[in-house]
Amino acid sequence: MDYNTLIARLSRRGVFRIKPGLERTRGVLNALGDPQARLQAIHIAGTNGKGSVAACMESVLRSAGYRTGLYTSPHLWDVRERIQLNRQPIGAAAFRDIAQEVLKAERQVGYTLTFFEFLTVMAFKTFADASVEVALIETGMGGRWDATNVLDHPALTLITSIGLDHVQWLGPSETAIAREKAGILKEGTPLIHGARGRAARAIAACARKKNVPLLQIGRDFYATPGVVQWERSRQALSYTGPAGTRTLTLGLMGRYQLDNAALALAAFETLQKQGWKITEASLRNGMARVNWPGRFQLETLTEPRVLFDGAHNPPALQRLLDALKASPWHRTPKTFVFGVYRDKDYSRLLAMIRPHAAHLVVCTLPGARALPAKKAAESFGRPDSPPQAGSTGSPYTRRVSGRNTCGVTLVKDPRQALGKALRLTDKNHLVVVTGSLALVGKLLNKAKPAERGALCPV
Question: Domain range spanning residue 313?
Answer without folding.
Answer: 297-443
